[in-house]
Amino acid sequence: HLLIIDLYLCHLEKAFEMLLVMQRREPDWPGYTERRNRLVFEEAKKRLRNDDLEAALAFFEELYELAPGYGGLQSGIGSTIEALVARSVANERLREARYYISRLRKTDPNHPTAKKLSAEFLSRAGGLLGQAQEARSEEKHDVALAETLQATKVWPSHPSLRSIFRATASRYQILSMGVYRFSGEKTPFFLP
Hints:
This protein has 192 residues and is mainly α. Helix content is 70%, strand content 0%. The protein has helices spanning 2-7, 12-25, 32-49, 53-66, 73-90, 94-107, 112-137, 141-154, 161-171. Helix 2 packs antiparallel against helix 3, helix 3 (32-49) runs antiparallel to helix 4 (53-66) and helix 5 packs antiparallel against helix 6 (94-107). The chain is elongated and about 75 Å long.
């Protein structure tokens, strides 16, 4: 039965169906675990090739739970996360990029890709905070606050962020408020 599953590796859906039948009939069959892990890994690689990054990540995470030391798993999930983060940054969705980094750190806290991406975001936020301090020393408080606010979007857990934000926000305050209707706009009520 397991040889037939190996033959169906090019048709992963059929191989998964056969594997589920094997699991129900003979859960302790020798070689079942290795075949299951291989199928999950092959499905993740297929999704990665098809640019279905979220699905690929889900399969890689599942394999991390089943067999954390599986060959090629660390590089596969790392390249998937890098692609997801790059796409998020290109679309200026930094919160989403941080989410993917934290998801990898939760799966494998010592993963080299997680460390590299965290260091990149920390450095980027540090550069913005440096620009904010330069602007503050030049008495450009509006620019300093804008740079600091951008740093909060890049990496909110930067160790220097709180103190620099406090100093810049105390010199230049921004009031944000919602507007329900504009002046001069007609309303259905007889009172203004």
